[in-house]
Amino acid sequence: MRISLLIDGSPLAVLATVMRGLPTDVKREIGGRTKGPAADMWRDELNQNVEDRRQGRLASSGTVGVTQSNVTLRAGGVGTLSSGTPVSAIAKATEFGATADTKILTHSRKGKPYKRRLGPTFGPPRRSGKVAYPAARQVIARIASLWVQTAYRTIHEKIERL
Predict the structure, then answer these.
(1) Phi, psi of 122, deg, nearest 5
(2) How far separated are the first and last CA of the chain, in Å rounded?
(3) Radius of gyration (Cα) for the chain, nearest Å?
(4) Which H or E run includes 63?
(5) Is the pLDDT of residue 161 over 80?
């Protein structure tokens, strides 16, 4: 999910215009000051939606990226389960569920490939998501507000130092 500055008629649009003319060190400082608190908010919101261990691993992989034109919220891209399976391999099924009759390709102990039913492991499909998407809906406005306030405060401090 991405919070973009390119929204017309809002403080974000004003900030986008101002950010174009700022020196690189000020942009970098705004990003650095925004990233920590935004990451904490994002992880807290992700953890509130957790119902099982797989969803907990999805939530613990939540990260935030800040550039001069967007804030990117990520979940499910890094980390592994205790079995060694990458979280990214099961992120989609964990977030959106899966039909129990879905056939998946797996391997026997001897390495022979076969297909099996997925079963009820990931729960029923849910189009609106279970962990990251509901968390993003809750946290986007707060992170956007934080970003604008941090940028204004940082710019103000830089002007005072001159």
Answers:
(1) -100, 0
(2) 37
(3) 20
(4) strand 63-66
(5) yes
